[in-house]
Amino acid sequence: MTRPGLGRERARTLARTMERDIGLGHLAPGEWLKQVDLEARYGATRMEVRQALDRLVEKGLVKHLARRGYRVEDFDPERQAQIMEVRAILEAAAADQVIGLLDEATLAAMEVQAERFRANVLDGTVEEQEEANLEFHRLMLAPCPNRELVALLFDLRGRVPVAVTRRRNTVGLLQRAAEHHFEIIRLVRARDATGLARLMRVHNLTPKAPDVG
Amino acid sequence: MTRPGLGRERARTLARTMERDIGLGHLAPGEWLKQVDLEARYGATRMEVRQALDRLVEKGLVKHLARRGYRVEDFDPERQAQIMEVRAILEAAAADQVIGLLDEATLAAMEVQAERFRANVLDGTVEEQEEANLEFHRLMLAPCPNRELVALLFDLRGRVPVAVTRRRNTVGLLQRAAEHHFEIIRLVRARDATGLARLMRVHNLTPKAPDVG
DNA sequence: GGCTCCTGTATTGGCGCCAATTTATGTGCC
DNA sequence: GGCACATAAATTGGCGCCAATACAGGAGCC
Predict the structure, then answer these.
(1) Which CATH architecture has domain A7-72?
(2) Chain A contact for B158, CB < 8 A?
(3) pLDDT (tens digit per residue) in A94-106
(4) Looking at CA atoms only, how far is residue B66 from chain A in angstroms?
(5) Looking at the domain covering B77-204, what would its CATH class be?
(6) pLDDT in tens, B56-106
(7) For the whole model, what pTM was predicted?
(8) Which residue of B lies nearest to A96 if distances are taken between CA atoms?
(9) Domain extent listing, chain A
(10) Under 8 Å CB-to-CB from B65, ≥6 apart: which residues?
(11) CA of A153 to C1' of D13 (A)
């Protein structure tokens, strides 16, 4: 069944899966995460569930109450805003690092994702929107030589559940974010570093709806 | 013996202790971390050791080889430099946030630690240097409203083992870092935001000896 | 009727055992 | 003497059991 040494890896992926489910709201804030339920739901062993929960606690997505269990952390808007601010800072710095490294082929690929995101804003699930958005930024950060910076950015992304903040996003704000993507591409092509840094900040810190990054 | 629900907390503190021991070089890079040895050394149970190791793997301080064991990660200078760069970015941003919030009492306390650090550069253990250094920055970041930013900065601090990089630091470079501390205080008093941001960058990215932050 | 206490049930959490596998040791052979 | 192979020891890693504790439901009491 479970081959030796693979439990670690399985727990890892389980944690990622649960992280996404929390982000998408399938596991609602305040909800109790009973170990037996999680075993059944994800087809995992008890130990894998425990390790995954432990990681999510470490990331601040899940709260642990001794002898009571685990529950999905309810999201303090202020804390979320702080995380978004950190993201904005790093995203601006990362943009500065890749502005001279993005070739035309990558920019074209980014444009495709920008189109996809814009289309999904109107008629598309949150998952589809998020996939396009994620891929856009993944492409953009791919040439960044500082892998730690990139890894940290994606880690921070996982700490801000889309479902929660996206709830506050009107279609208008999402459209604005969609247009940002095209503007980003334009500024990279123009090699306008200061303009890009400013836009990355705005893109991450859209007033009262800080999530679409 | 072990009271219920405390295992988690103990594993947490054990991870922190081991993290410091790795940072100080008491656990050398490449060294095998046998679970029985760790049990004996830290007076912990098997499970606590496992959880602690798991966390250190997650942080990138320890490498796990299936069915072989855990060993202290040997530190890629490039990766370290990347982490230091992230720290420099965030430290500059944090400085900008606290420059208007630091009162004279705190600045005086910082000055004490700056003196302590300078003294320990000449005759003092690495531990003493690091304690003064840490306290200086702790005081400086205390009024920062973005707690996530501060938490992340201290987390990043733990990922760069002082012993390893400090090895490259000549006394001259350490003294330069010590003077930086006084310069930081001066710039905060003068409310020179741009100068402070620049200095925080330099302070973190001292050429070829990027560790003293 | 409502409050309290008590019992039964569900859930978590730690501990120990044992299998799988790797490393070290010793023996025979070339 | 050195190499290959078999055997023994050591180590990790997963699984299951059971104690400790919290929660739910019901009975008894005021």
Answers:
(1) Orthogonal Bundle (1.10)
(2) no
(3) 999 999 999 999 9
(4) 5
(5) mainly alpha
(6) 999 999 999 999 999 999 989 999 999 999 999 999 999 999 999 999 999
(7) 0.92
(8) B89
(9) 7-72, 77-204
(10) B71
(11) 33
